[in-house]
Queue: 2 jobs
Job 1
Amino acid sequence: MFLKNTVAAIALTVAAGTAMADCGISEGRVSIVGNEFPAIQTVGAGAMACANDAVEVSTNLTADHQTINVPGMQGNPAEYTSAIVANSSIVALINEDVIRPLDDLIAAHGQDLKPNQIVTINGQAMAIAFMANAQHLVYRSDILEQAGVEAPTTYEEMLAAAEAIRAAGIFENPIGGPYAAGWNLAQEFNNMFLGFGGQHFESGTANPTVNSEAGVKALEMMKALSEYMNPDFLTHDSNATNAEYRAGNTALMHMWGSRAATLVEAEGVPQEVIDGFAIAGPMTVGGGDTPASTLWWDGWTVAKNISDADAEATFIALMNGINPSILEDGDVTTQAVWLLDGYEPTDAAVGGFDAANSGTAPYPMLPYMGLMHTALGAELTDFMQGNESAEQALADVEAAYTAAAKENGFLQ
Amino acid sequence: MKHKTFFWFFLPTAMAMLVFIAAPIVSVIMQSLFLPHEAVLIQVENCGPFGCTQQTSIDQEATQALRDAAPMGRFAGLEIYFDRGHLATAEVAAAWRNSESIGAFFGELGNLPFYRAMAFTLTYTFTVTPLLIALGFFIAVGVNSVTRQIRGFLIFFSLLPMIVTPLVGSLILFWMIDARGILGNLIQFLANDPDLSLKASTPLMWISLIVYGIWSSAPFAFVVFYAGLQTVPQDTLESAQIDGASRWQQIRYVLVPHLMPLITFVALIQLMDNFRVFEPIIGFSAQAHATSLSWIIFNDLGGETRQLAAAATTSVLTVLCVAILLTPVLIRTWRDFKGKA
């Protein structure tokens, strides 16, 4: 997977270097940092195509992007002229004040943008979104048929389906999910917690409210699901979960739309997995109406501490990266739910579309949400291993979050 | 050497140490004493692909004004050192009052990140260090006694774990012990338990990490001891043989005493290294079962909101812990030194 991505990235880079599209940039430096899933690779390659003798364009696309983007943009001049972010990771850039408002550049070069692509904060455009993302159900239609169950629409049905598959002796552990301790586990909690109607914070303040009835129910549901997972689930991030699915070991899983679309295109995936591959919308839980998932956008920003020429070059190069003409390539179309003009949803996008249409909540874009996410990732593992009660785990989360929020000036 | 000559010789080193060691440490200590400013929060309207919402955000201008007024941040003194993320004095005191038994008290301690990390770090340090010294010593003695023809090959082979990058080495082992990996499968077969998973059990994960630690550091001890064995006086060994000393007695009464200063040296370095255990925890994705102080620093810096003050405080605590850990060995070295003088 990693190797393949790397090879693909190099191939794209080489192709981009030879293409030498004329984007109309006469001077400047473009340096982009971002995540590494397929759609972002495409945008990065599109920006790289603007390189010419006077304009240097480089990308650093890595899963560790969020640990390097803030330090890489704090210097003056900033190392990275752009960070590709999501609605969670833009918060850190705003908190540290390292990205610039884009209104002037949009007026000059962004006429083709659709209004819903422009992310504004307090009236100022701060990012250009190019795709939407959400976690939703990915399943094996053949296995479900064999066990005589329908694709679940609620987590309760997912448990019943898993039990049926186990009882039929098809898989001992039919459920998969990115439950790796840390960021992934915290995100699964966020999904389930919002599905049960929970709120992370007292409205308008940074006071945590995860130690609530919704929090306990969310943890109990996660624990119930984990009984049907590979015992190593606390080490499975989304890459490892996908690998399990590709290997034909998983029948039901909660997966990112951005990764699900190209899931079975990897080499060596058994035919029955390719044939049985199916996608559905996110599930609800506990009789709620809101799906237990979150909505995300991915978009790009422009650094504050760079010259105007570099900012302009960066903006134009990335506009080229999200030029609607990239959708002419059929593979690119399936990579994401694009927010670009002329995008027609593909079969791979039904999950993401369903998530948006069924009122899924966007991931909370709050200055202190990152601290909550970190606290959840570190403190929920004891509960998932059965070492402590849900109440104790959530009390630990609140205590860890409160200590961190005090240190960072969000709580007194 | 004249004082003046010594001074000019030492000056470049001293400058480098000042710039690359002393200055960063001072900077870290300063960072651990100051907190970021209180964030001035405002309600703003945010719009994006999913519509507009009223949300809390940071008032950049007001916050910038605070930052300009006091660029270092808020002075916190030792407050961060004693909060829940670090020494957690209030929580420890509460746990002591509320626990009915010592066991329950330690259970409560295990809930606090610093003490949870210490439990693993100390176990790791004090099992890995002696075992790697023993293993390194026996490899060195073994390699030293084989014929010269294959010695080069054996030395290269024994050094391999040290040549492999720690992260890569731990990843390889991580995949091998996976329930579907070659070692994981073998262990399931030997234990006759198809559900056994090293990655799902805290004790087995600790053992895996410790085995990895010994495997990756033993070559260092081996190289040092092998070099030391080349300096063993042959007459002493021969007279021991003439006196009828067995192989074991030669090792016990000639080799070990001769290598003792080197053993102290390896122990010193390895105590320091093992206390800062980090790569295997990442490589093994073991954070659910085992954490260390270095891992806490990594986690504080790796979240979407970087916690610089918290990470700086843990760094200073690490330095202090290493200093405490090394005190007995340093005292011993000092005594030896004075004894010789």
Job 2
Amino acid sequence: MNNHITPQPAHVTPADDMTCRDVAAFLMAYLDGELAVEPRRAFDDHLAQCSSCVRYVEHYRRTVAMAQATGQSIDDVPVPSGVLRAIRQARSHVA
Amino acid sequence: MTEARQSVTDSLALEEQQLLAGLRLRDERAFEQFESMVATQMYATARRMLRDDADAQDAVQEAFIGAYKSIANFDGRSKLSTWMTRIVINKCLMRLRSKRRSHEVSVETLLPRFKDDGHPVEWTSHWRDEEPGDSRERTASLVRAMIDELPDHYRAVLVLRDVQGLSTEETAEALGDSPNAVKVRLHRARQALRTLLDPHMRRERVKDSE
């Protein structure tokens, strides 16, 4: 089956005529403002005509935001005192 | 950079150099300062990577002991916390490798698929709207569970970059990769996470549960 691609490295320049595959490959560079003027325009032109890609971009943004939010909600619990004690004991033996 | 900010940066760098010198001299106060500065953050990293408190405690303990053994070899070019993160991540990856999660999927199966003409094999679904604040913790718990499904190296980059908010350069140093490799892997990790979240976020599912 010939229906999957590997996303291109960020430094590769997308074609002028963008496909949905290109949008998926260059989305992070687009959102990070790393696309040059012409590819960015081609990207915007594609989004203006493709509601599926608009949704994909929105999902990607929300995925990143949700991942970032887990960093704010997880309890930064302190290391249990037993572990710190073990580290202290071990460090006195480290040459 | 403004003069004031440069001065703050210089003074932080000086503090870091003094701490490093203390650690190399095996000064007790330096050890304690270092542990109080980074231990909580390192434990959070290990818990996010391993999702098991006992494993995370073992990994952190091993990492500190490993760091103290190799402090003489640390060149001081990165921040101490970044260097320590690298050691913790390596300890976590070693533990995960030894457990060899049988259900771990290849990231390729989680990336969007396309036909030869560049159109997607499957059109993007409609996701439900963002929910009010009372379900935020439930969403966070779902996202954490899906992050846990990512292949180890992809989880590592997403945890450091998106969850913990390290910069691309800091993440690259912590993982021993180039910044460009971090960007490529992060993009794949985000796409894979989107795919994992998709069945849980589809609008139809919300209607079903209502």
